[in-house]
């Protein structure tokens, strides 16, 4: 009989954990959409909210109207929300989307009607273009996009990830009304360096918390608990390790089960994966079997025969574990 044959038992679909099963498991997504990796910002283009400092050599009354002792930004000209900028003698100029060189040439041409061969220099001293951040970052202050292009890794480095509470596999880059999910954990595994992604004005970064990304380990283990994890996945070996492992006095190695789909059990059969931990290859299989958020790992004292009754009991049990974990999470946050 094929080891992969599914055995239906009421509301349960039984699947043995075999080498064939773990080899077919889902792999973390490491590919980034081409539209993200291929984007390269060109020369800086002026945006509403920028502050422009215009220097007209030999004409301090135009260059430093607020006084030479003031900071550069005080003598700058603010680009209005409609993209225009007012400058003496040049009037209102629609500067939105211009490069710095294009603005310099425009002002030079307009001022030449009043000044003899004006020598004009243009600099951006305040930036209105920003990338916003939300979620499990230490610092969610919006970051400016300056004349030096900003990469995703630089933005994350400046914001600092809250490593204890972040879901590293769930970063979302929102751009042009589209959401791109980026698995930071998978991209940087095994010493790999992720491809550079340059950010655009208006980009939004959201890094979710991992407080809802839980696995429940119960039964004959040393420390039954709800486990949060921040990476793409967690293996069965890691989950059992965090609970101290199987109880050597009461557990039976042949009764290690992973129950998946408990929350939807009333609408569809739950899937139960069985690991025979007495097998010599069990540790290798457990280390390659990836768990998902919401999975319940149950270690029993013997083989389970009445799955319907057991799974019915899991529904209130997972609720209790979840509520307890949430209460502890709130207490920890309040005390910080």
TrEMBL record:
It holds the Pfam family Poly_export. The keyword Ion transport applies. Residues 41-124 form the Polysaccharide export protein N-terminal domain. It is found in: Cell outer membrane. Keywords: Cell outer membrane, Ion transport, Lipoprotein, Membrane, Palmitate, Polysaccharide transport, Porin, Signal, Sugar transport, Transmembrane, Transmembrane beta strand, Transport. It comes from the Bacteria. Residues 130-206, 213-299 form the SLBB domain. It is a multi-pass membrane protein. InterPro entries: Poly_export, Poly_export_N, SLBB_dom. Belongs to the BexD/CtrA/VexA family. This is Polysaccharide biosynthesis/export family protein. It comes from Luteimonas salinilitoris.
């Amino acid at each position: 009989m094929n080891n992969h044959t599914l055995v239906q038992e009421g509301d349960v679909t039984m699947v043995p954990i075999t080498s064939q099963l773990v080899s077919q498991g889902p792999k973390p997504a490491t590919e980034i959409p081409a539209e993200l990796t291929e984007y390269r910002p060109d020369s800086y283009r002026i945006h509403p909210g920028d502050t422009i400092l215009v220097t007209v050599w030999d004409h301090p009354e135009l260059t430093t109207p607020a006084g030479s002792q003031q900071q550069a930004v005080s003598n700058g000209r603010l680009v209005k929300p409609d993209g225009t900028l007012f400058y003496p003698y040049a009037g209102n100029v629609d500067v939105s989307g211009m490069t710095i060189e294009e603005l310099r040439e425009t002002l030079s041409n307009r001022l030449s009607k009043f000044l003899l061969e004006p020598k004009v220099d243009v600099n951006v001293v305040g930036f209105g273009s920003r990338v916003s951040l939300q979620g499990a970052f230490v610092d969610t202050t919006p970051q400016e996009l300056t004349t030096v292009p900003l990469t995703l890794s630089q933005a994350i480095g400046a914001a600092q990830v809250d490593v204890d509470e972040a879901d590293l596999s769930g970063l979302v880059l929102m751009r042009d009304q589209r959401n791109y999910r980026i698995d930071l954990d998978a991209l940087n595994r095994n010493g790999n360096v992720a491809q550079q992604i340059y950010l655009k004005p208006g980009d939004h970064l959201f890094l979710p918390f991992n407080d809802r990304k839980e696995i429940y380990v119960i039964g004959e283990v040393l420390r039954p608990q709800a486990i949060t994890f921040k990476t793409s996945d967690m293996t069965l070996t890691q989950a059992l390790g965090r609970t101290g492992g199987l109880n050597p006095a009461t557990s039976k190695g042949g009764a290690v089960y992973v129950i998946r789909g408990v929350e939807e059990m009333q609408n569809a059969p739950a899937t139960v994966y069985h690991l025979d931990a007495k097998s010599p290859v069990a540790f290798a299989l457990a280390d390659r079997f990836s768990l998902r958020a919401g999975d319940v790992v149950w270690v029993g004292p013997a083989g389970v025969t009445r799955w319907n009754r057991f799974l019915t009991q899991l529904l209130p049990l997972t609720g209790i574990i979840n509520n307890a974990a949430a209460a502890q999470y709130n207490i920890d946050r309040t005390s910080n």
